[in-house]
Give the backbone structure.
Amino acid sequence: MAAPLRIGRYEVVRHLATGGMAEVYLARAQGPGDFEKLVVIKRILPALAEDPRIVQMFLDEARTAATLRHSNVAQVFDFGAADGAHFLVMEFLNAESVSALMRRTIAARRELPLEHAILIARDVCAGLHYAHEKQGGDGQPLGIVHRDLSPQNVLVTFHGEVKLVDFGIAKAAHNLARTHTGTLKGKIPYMSPEQSRAQPVDRRSDLFSLSVVLWELTVGQRLLRGTNDYEMLRAIATEDAPAPSVFRPDYPPALERIVAKGLARDPAARWQTAQELQLALERFAHEQRLLLSNVELARHLGQVFGARPTIAAERPAPAVAPTAPGTGVTGTAAAPAGQPTTALRRPADATMPAPAGQPTTALRRPADATMPAP
């Protein structure tokens, strides 16, 4: 399907991806003189635009997302409707998703230094806490919950910034998933137990999801997988996550306690705020003498993906939607110079097999130690 020439007042550069709920485009905003700004537009799929419930929820969430201003949250600039479909306008980020970073790191038989994993989780905590604490004009909490925190929705820019995306459509997408089969594929492994039971969720659900991401970043493997959605949902609701040290004997005990608390099935036993988790991670990094540096994270991204791509209006944008792939930079990066000895090591045979032939046990067991990264 050909990309439209314009969406509202925005000139479309090219189509980027199509997900279960929206089409994603790189577009250009223009103004007086030579003003020009690249943006990313997410437009509701035409079939869904006819459902007033989905449209209304999308608009409600978009209004909320547009009020968020934080360095670790991708900014929503605008929202509107054109040609019968509603859309969000987000900041363009020259970035890769954490999902792509994990895949490329393992495929290249490289290691994600522990300090980078902690930095990514810490910065996501900062963005989450800001959103969770956001108040409306009347001073009352808005009760924002992301609901879809996964490696696909965390981006790392080539400047080393960590950005959380898709606050604006998470609730609408969750509602859509309850009535449209298959829209949750790829997201179930990061759902909290209460979310898997379709129960009301609060900020602690996001902290469970982030703890799954942290488990995977520091272990180097998927935490949860199954042969079907039902099996994974059952495992989330009824089984405790295995300790990271089961797969990584060198896993730091203090970090294991932090992760275990975040993965508690009972929300009351988890970290109660993202700020609490952030402080715990910062204390751990200080005790371990880990340097949490956005500059070093940017260097690592460049080593994994190659030289930072040139940002030009005619070039496709990096993945910014949950379903969008990475930029696909070719070539294998060399091992990073001066790899810190504190980095958790990937097993030499850590590969990324295709999802086909997945084991019937949903939660990881030691025998399944070669599960793919997200």
